[in-house]
Amino acid sequence: MTTATTEETKNVPQDVKEPVKDGADTVAETNNKQTENNDKKPAVAEKDDKVATPAAPVEPPQPKFTVKKQNFEKDVVYLYQFSRTPVIPSMSPYCLKVETWLRLAGLKYENVDHKMKHRSKKGQLPFIELNGEEIADSTLIIKELSQKFGKDIDAALSQDQRNISHAMVSMIENKLVWVITWWKTKTPENVIKGYKVNLQHALGTWVPNGVLNFLFKHSYSRKGLKKVKAQGIGVHKPEEILEFGQNDLKVLSDVLGDKLYFFGNEPSILDVVAFANLAQLFFLDKDVECQLRDYLVDNFGNLVEHTNRIKERCFPDWEDMCKNLDLNSHLPKPPPVEEKPKEDGDKKAAENKNTEKEAKEPSDEKGDGKKEGEKEPEDK
Question: For the segment 150-167, what is each residue's pLDDT rounded down to a tens digit?
Answer without folding.
Answer: 999 999 999 999 999 999
